Amino acid sequence: MHSAIPRPATFLHSGPLRGTVKVPGDKSISHRAIMLSALAVGESRISGLLEGEDVLATAAAMRAMGAKIERTGEGSWTVHGVGVGGLMQPSAALDMGNSGTSTRLLMGLVSSHRISATFIGDASLSKRPMGRVIDPLSLMGAEFNASPGGTLPLMVRGLVPAIPIRYRLPVASAQVKSAVLLAGLNAPGRTEVVEPIPTRDHSERMLRGFGADLSVELASDGVRHIRLKGEAELKPQNIEVPGDPSSAAFPIVAALITPGSEVTVTHVGMNPTRNGIYKMLEAMGANISYSNEREVGGEPVADITARHSILHGIEVPPEVAPSMIDEFPVFFVAASVAQGRTTTSGLDELRVKESDRLALMASGLQAIGAVVTETEDGLLIDGSGGEPLEGGAAIKSALDHRIAMSFAVAGQHCYKGVTVDDVTPIATSFPSFEIMLMMLKGDDNSSVSPDGSANP
Hints:
Layout: E1 9-11, E2 18-22, H1 27-39, E3 41-47, H2 53-64, E4 68-73, E5 76-82, E6 94-95, H3 100-111, E7 116-120, H4 131-139, E8 143-147, E9 151-157, E10 166-168, H5 174-184, E11 190-195, H6 202-209, E12 214-218, E13 224-229, E14 238-240, H7 245-257, E15 262-269, H8 276-283, E16 287-296, E17 299-307, H9 328-336, E18 341-343, H10 357-367, E19 371-374, E20 379-382, E21 394-395, H11 401-410, E22 418-420, H12 433-441, E23 447-448, E24 454-455
Parallel strand pairs: 2-15, 3-14, 6-7, 10-11, 21-22
Antiparallel strand pairs: 1-22, 3-5, 4-5, 7-9, 8-9, 11-13, 12-13, 15-17, 16-17, 18-20, 19-20, 23-24
Helix pairs in contact: 1-2, 1-6, 2-3, 3-4, 3-5, 4-5, 7-9, 7-11, 9-10, 9-11
C-alpha cells in the first residue's frame, strides 16, 4: 500500500507536451479479471493487468481465500481458480488499502460463500459508506457487522445457499450492480438487477466471457434488466486488459490545455459506458481523434490523439455522469481554462468517492485562481478563456489519487507552480504517472528534487 509518509511535488508549466504514451491497464477490468479468474476452475492468463495498489489488494484478497495467483512478467499474471463456491476462509482481515471497488465487489463474493471475512482499509477508505452494498446483500442472506455509518472495519458472514433476488438500483452504481451479480454466481435460481440508468458494463461482458448464463434486456423505457443464472461454472480465460480510459484522460486533458501540445495515448478502452469525458470534451471543441479502432476481449479499443484546443463551456447533462464519474476532477480542470461557463449537476456520487471530490476540486481550483461556485450536486465553473491560471498554491489531495493527478495536470497551464501535498496515492491507479509527464515534456524540461522525487 502507498507510503504513510507524504511526498509533496510541485508541477510547473515548462512548454508543450508531445509524444506517444501507453497508460496502465483498465482498473475496473483488472479487478474483475482477477476475481473471475479466481472463481474459474483451471488456469487463466491475464496480460496488461494494472499493477497499481488497488488491484494488488484484490489479488492479495483472492490469494487469502484460496486462489493461486502469480506474476509472470510486467502486467502478465496467471490465476489458478478455486471454482464458484470454493472460496476458503481467510486467516486474517482483508486489507483493501484505498480500494472501494475491491471492497464492494469482494463483499458480494463473500456474501454467497460459507465463510466470514473482515475488511479493513486506509483512512480514506474507512470513511466511505458501504450501506448501498450492504442493503441488497443482506436481502440475499448475508450478515454484516459494520462500523458506525456503515463503514470499515466491516465483517461479512456469507450464507449458503444465498437467496436470489430481484434488485432495482436506487442510484446508478456499477459497484453495487457488480456486487449483487457476483453474489448471485453462487445462489440458486436467477438473480436480477434492474438498472434505470446504465453504468459501466464490464462485469456483464466479462461474466459472459467466462461462461456465465447472463442476459441483458433493454425495456422500452430504457431500463436494463440484467439476469444471471446462479450456481455457475466459470471456464478459465486468456484476458487482455486495455488501457484505462480514466487514466488516459489525464494526459489527454493536459495536452488540450497546454499550448503547442500533441499527445497520443495508445490502446485505450473505449467502452461506451466509460467514454463520457471524451464526448463532453469534444462538445467543448476539443481536437481529439481516434485511430487503430479494434476490439480486444470483447471491449472496444482505440488510440487517442489530443491537440491543444480552445475549449468552450458547456452544460453537462446529468445522465452523462455515470459514463464519466471518475473523470470529473480532471474535466473540471479543463473547464477552468475554457471560454465561458461550464455547468454540472447530478454529481452527488462525487461526495462519497475517495474524498468529497466536489468540495476538494472547488476549493483547490479557487486556490489557483479559477472562478468556481460549488452547488449541492455539482460545480459551476467560469473559465479563464484559455489564459493560464495563477497557480502558486499548495493543494490537499486527501489521499485521493484523482485529485492529486488533476492538480498535476492543472499545473501545466498556470503562471506559477501547483504543489500537491502528497502524490503517493497516485500509485493506487497510475504508478508511472509522474514519469509519463516528464517523458511528454522531454528530459530537458523536467527536474528531480534533492530527495530523488520527481518535480515534473
